[in-house]
Amino acid sequence: MKKIAGAAVAILLYSAIVFYFGGSVATWLELYLPINNWLFGIVWGLIAFGFIIGRFSHKLRLFSIIGSYWFIVMQYGIILFPLATILTWIYPAQLSIIGWIVFMVFLVIIIFGTYNAYTPVVRELSIVMPKKGSNVESLKVVVASDFHLGLLSNRAHLNRFVKKSNAEKPDLVLLVGDLVDDDPIWFVQKGMSEVMKQLTSTYGIYGVLGNHEYYGKKIPLLVEEMEASNVRMLLDETILVADSFYLTGREDLTNKNRKHLSELAPEEKDLPWFVMDHIPSNLLIPEKEKVDFHVSGHTHLGQMWPNHLLTRRIFELDYGYRKKGSLHAIVSSGFGFWGPPIRLGSQSELWSVNIKLEDGEV
Fold it and tell me: Vertex 257, ends 253 and 263: CA angle to 5°?
């Protein structure tokens, strides 16, 4: 009963915000053209609830796209609309100018944010770790996460990743969860497997599940598609790669039955140990278990400013590189995006990590 009451309150509050935003926009538009309030209200409501409408059927994907962009209005409208209202109270004769200022701010956010989302960068890092009994002296590892492949993070965006990754000539490619945006249907229908197959690597391409694969509830199909794309999915599994290092892929934290990291530890700690875990929930555990290289994603670095202030409080390491004892940890902000195809305060990225393996303690 409490959940129902909470949901009802949330819907009412959201509807009130939507009504306030819509009323503000309609008041400004009426300065330039006649507005049919009923028609405007219906269109505004469809836009505001588009993301939910689009989830009822894949045929309603246009609503999903419109709803994704609506998140921009919600994110920054909470700040801009009240400011505009206050300014209009103070300077009622300047309603037109104030409205245009708000419009231009949204336009700049969309243009700049779209550029950051669709113009990925390569983050380069060099680290040194103990060689132990490894047969190799160095490794170049490409790390990427949070593709959210679907309608907006699309085939063309995946192609950008493949080109940038291959240009690094990696020995190993690690895809750290949220590979698709819930449902792999668009990965299948848009033929993204053919693009993913073009990835090259000396020792292979490996992936793990993220929370959004669980939300989509089509994990078997996702795994099948990835395996067909030459991406080996590791689901609570540790393997030996090229007789040179161990690689563990953990189930996502969403899976309450996932194994403890200690259960996945190699019996012999005679080689470097790499771990993929989508959510960087607790770095103390891999540090304690003597993991050498730990990679995660999930946080998006907030994706849209100032959400990074929240991720920074939730996670010990919400972005970047950190060394804890003998552990080298990386959290990527992701190659794709969730919701609107914009990034402010972050940029779509992949990591190119040069690992030098040396004898003795490092």
Answer: 90
